[in-house]
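User: Before I run my own analysis I want an independent prediction to cross-check against. Here's the chain; please return only the structure tokens and, at the end, one sentence I can use as a sanity check.
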Amino acid sequence: MAEKAKVVVEYKDKRNSSGRVIDGVIYLSISNQISLAEKEEHIRKLTDKLQSKINWAKNYNFNNSKGIVKTNEELSRLAQTINTAYYNYPLNMVEFHKQNSTWGTCSLKTKNIYISNRLKGASLDLVWYVLVHEICHLAEPSHNQRFWDLVSKACPTYKECRKMLKAYGMQIK
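Assistant: Structure tokens:
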């Protein structure tokens, strides 16, 4: 029998209930504007739905000890290598940063890129994709077709990498 994820429930003054998985934990935000029976039903349905996503994510076998990028220096070197080989955009600092809700961010103003600490030691495919994604935002801020065309230059398997990243986020603790 599959292991059940920890579930954290928070009641909020909002109309809709929602949930998400972060690092293998199910976080539910349940409306307090509904009856107790409806709250219980929302919790059950959202938990079942998110648990099935966690179970899907287990099809990917990640081993954090195998990743080669674990320091800011290694991350920066990889980003500079990708940028030089494929883009040549102005790029300043690249480093790991505490980010729990995103995998990476970039600043168009400072040309800095920050990658979530949760990717330290992750597979090279995942780190590569997130770096490429953020580097491409230096040239194209939105997720339009031009952006995805730029991403595909350095990461032609970006669609699979996005699936892997989603699965990775549901597994790591």
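Sanity check: The chain has two domains: 7-57, 66-171.
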